Amino acid sequence: KMDDDDDIPQLSSHTLAALQEFYLEQQQREGMKTSQGFNQYSIGSIEEDWQLSQFWYSDETASCLAKEAVLAAGKGGRIACISAPSVYQKLKEQDGEDFSVCILEYDRRFSVYGEEFIFYDYNHPLDLPENLLPHSFDIVIADPPYLSEECLQKTAETIKYLTKGKILLCTGAVMEEQAAKHLGVKICKFIPKHSRNLANEFRCYVNYASGLD
Question: Where in the cell (predicted)?
Answer without folding.
Answer: Cytoplasm
